Amino acid sequence: MLCVCVFVIAGLPLVTRSVVRSFEDSLRDRAITVPMIVGSAGSRFDLVLASLHWRASDVTPIPLGVAEEIRSEPGVMAIPVHVRFRARGIPIAAVPYEYFEYRLLTPRDGRLVAGLGEAVLGSSAAAELGLVPGDELPSDQLRSYDITAPSAVMLRVVGVLRETGTADDRAVFVDLETAWTLEGIAHGHEEASSITDENKLIGRSDDRVALSGAVIEHQRIDESTIGSFHLHADRADLPVTAILVFPGSEKTATLVRTRINADPTRQALSPSAVSEELIGSVLRVRRVVDAISLVVGIAMLGLLVLVALLSYRARADEVRTLLEIGATPSQVAALFLTEFGGVILVGVGAAFLAAWALGGASDRILTLFT
Amino acid sequence: MDVTGTNSVIRLSDVAYRFPGHDRLTLRVPSFSVPEGEHTAITGPSGCGKTTLLRLIAGVLVPGEGSVQTLGTDTTRLHHKARSRQRLRSIGMVFQDFAILDYLTAFENIMLTARIGRADSGSSREHARALAERAGIGHVLHRRPGRLSQGERQRVAVCRALVTKPRLVVCDEPTGNLDPSRSKAIVDLVLAEADTLGSTVITVTHDQTVLDRFDRTIDLSEVATLKGVDA
Amino acid sequence: MRLLSLLVIALVGLALCGCDRTDASPDQLHIEDVVRTTSAPVDALTRRIAGDAVPVELLCPQSEDPAAWRPDPETVASYQRAKLIVANGAGYEAWVQTAPLPRSRLIEAADGLSEPLITVRGETHSHGPEGHHTHEVTLGEVWLDPLNAIAQARAITAGLADAFPEHQDKFGANLDVLSTELMDLHQRLERLEQEGAAIVAPSTPFGYLARRYGWQTLDLSQAPEDWPMDLYSHGMESGDFGSGPRALLCDKPPDPAVANTLLESHDVHLVLWRTGSRDRGKSFTEMLSGNIDRLEASIP
Question: Which fold has domain B8-227?
Answer without folding.
Answer: Rossmann fold (3.40.50)
